[in-house]
Amino acid sequence: MLQPILFALLLLAAFGLFTWQVRKIRANILVGRDRDMSGHFSERFNKTLLVAFGQQKMFKRLTPALLHLVVYVSFLVINVEVIEIIIDGLFGTHRVLRFLGPVYDVMMATNELLAVLVIVAVAAFWWRRNHNPPVRRFTGPELRMWPKLDANIILYIEVALMVALLFMNAADIRLHELRREELPGTFPVSRFLAGLLPAGSETALEVLERTGWWIHIIGILLFLNYLPSSKHFHIIMAFPNVWYSRLVPQGQFSNVESITHEVKAMMDPSYEVPAPPVGPDGSALAPTPFGVKDVEDLAWTNLMQAYSCTECGRCTSVCPANLTGKLLSPRKIIMDTRDRVEEKYNSPLIFHPNVYGEEAKHEPITDLANATLLRGKVTPEELWACTTCNACVESCPVNINPLESIVEMRRFLVLEESAAPNSLNIMFSNIENNGAPWAFSPSDRLNWADDLYVAEKATV
Amino acid sequence: MTPTSSPAAPAKRQLTVPTVADLAAQGKTPEILFWVGCAGAFDDRYKRVTRAFARILEHVGTDYAVLGLEESCTGDPAKRAGNEFLFQMQAMQNITTMNGYGIKKIVTACPHCFNTIKNEYPALGGEYEVIHHSTYLQQLINEGKVAVKGGESFQGRRITFHDSCYLGRANNIYEAPRDVLAALDADLVEMKRSRANGLCCGAGGAQMWKEPEPGKKDINIERTEEALATLSGQAAALDNLRGVETERTAPSEHSLQGAIIAVSCPFCMTMMSDGVKNKEQESAVQVFDLAELIASAEGINA
């Protein structure tokens, strides 16, 4: 009875390691600023059903949506078999769910067909990423090195898992034939694979069946612990991320409360500005900066979004600035956020943050530990290229909002560093002096109405 | 060039656009405030849109007024550029003015003013019912107050509508401007990137006031090429629109002569007009705002 003990230990280790990694990520997300996202239960519930479970926004592009649907549905369905594997592993049983009878037949057959579909879909995914030239959104300075490798590793693991599943079944079929026993379940695919296996040696078949079984489950447990280091973590984070979507119109930018107090105090001297927040010992806390310089200035939702990003690049592919060759890539800003929070706080098992060089017009960074998100990873040139058109926000299948981070970093540049481009400073002073962004005299504001005539016509 | 009204020029009436202050002096408050916006007040091209929309308001007998010299920038460009302090100063000043006059309802021809007043003023104490002029025109047409006849005919002319980001994605208004154009009985064609997938003209987010960052192409050129290819029926050319300058090579199915790019935003107006000039098509293709098209179809220009 060595196998169940080994299996139990393996399971424990895998889930323990996974929990340890998830706690690190949770801690990373919580370094962000507080933001109240409570309430609106039914609206959030519906959004989660439609956008996360229903993949509504994926279907703007049909081909990848269908391919992704295959992998997504298979992930949900085949995982039922993982439950069986876990029970079998722990109790030394074999195909414990066989008591389901015809339902078990349907289950096994579905899994096998889905496994084949997954292999086909994954092959298509691989082709889209690796043929020359690849689909445009799988290119760009942020998608070299580790992110590129990561994407392929995920595809290889998925194929390996499916192949292991099919060969496990095939060996089982052969084995039962040899022993003249009946095997529960229907196996439309591995039936044919069974013919490829040696018929003679029972031991060899047993080894093959066990190998398939162990590869499948170890593969799944390894994959589980690979997720926190990978963009594939979206299979978990997509759901809470969509749940905590912004529910206001996309054009509504956040209000900066502290500035509201200042402006009110300027306009009305009797206005009382609320006391600044105090720490646990009663001393005043350091004032929070305007806007975002580093990851802890972002809201926790922005950091959660960084962990929900699967680097698909839909945002970047519709960005008008990126389309016309500017440096800005919304995906890069989200990826930089995750890299930076892991560089500064907790990192998972595998951690290769993107380091950009000349290509992304980055000045050489010598002090990685003290390089902030703004300037260390995201350059002002990227931020000033944004037209705030919301195309990236609209396109994200899991409701990530890169625009929010862009505007917050602009706020830091303008309000803390007075580092706006000169032409924008001119625009600011025009507004201040003339009440218009252009240098026109405010007394000319009604000139448009001079010599205005309307043709008299009976109204209908 | 503003479309001219029917040749037999009818009687015309000079307008004195009422200001809220004038009405207040008479103890009156307008039912609706026409928020003109800085582009509508100062930009020579967009002043024509403001005038067209004022004609429509007069024509249907709306109880409206403008703030006139008391209007000031909503603060939109400052906020998008990150200058929250300046934005809030502007917002508070405008809110104080409008609340002082008891303004309840606002119509504006600028999607940026519309978005800012509708979505960002409430947090600062400015709660109003705000409508964009495309929605307002749609209502006038639906109610039969504007018949869209008696003036220039747009029958058979090819028109494509360019979505403004701050009307479309920002506020989910896609159908109102299209309904307004549908009333013209013209030949409406949609660009490949339209509605929620519409491509920005390149001016939002305070880009209007700065040079674009270094790149391969200007955004308004990309968008104008798409509009022109759509209007001339060169579907094949559309696939080449990926950040590179394209030469028009495919034979056109439709002549561009008389075609129209319709916009609903002052910045889109500037960007698309510049794009058409850059492509040397300004003698064939015109860029018009919805209000101009309706005013001239209604025959109320004078």
Automatic annotation (TrEMBL), chain A:
GO terms for molecular function: 4 iron, 4 sulfur cluster binding; metal ion binding; oxidoreductase activity. Pfam families: Fer4_9. Keywords: 4Fe-4S, Iron, Iron-sulfur, Membrane, Metal-binding, Oxidoreductase, Transmembrane, Transmembrane helix. The chain crosses the membrane at residues 65-91, 103-127, 153-171. Residues 300-330, 376-406 form the 4Fe-4S ferredoxin-type domain. One of its GO terms (cellular component) is plasma membrane. Signal peptide: none annotated. The keyword Ribonucleoprotein does not apply. This is 4Fe-4S dicluster domain-containing protein. It comes from Hymenobacter setariae.
Automatic annotation (TrEMBL), chain B:
The keyword Iron applies. It comes from the Bacteria. GO terms for molecular function: 4 iron, 4 sulfur cluster binding; metal ion binding; oxidoreductase activity. Transmembrane segments: none annotated. This is (Fe-S)-binding protein. Keywords: 4Fe-4S, Iron, Iron-sulfur, Metal-binding, Oxidoreductase. PANTHER family: IRON-SULFUR-BINDING OXIDOREDUCTASE FADF-RELATED, IRON-SULFUR-BINDING OXIDOREDUCTASE FADF-RELATED-RELATED. Pfam families: CCG. The keyword Isomerase does not apply. Residues 33-118, 159-229 form the Cysteine-rich domain. GO terms for cellular component: plasma membrane. InterPro entries: Cys_rich_dom, HdrC_iron-sulfur_subunit.
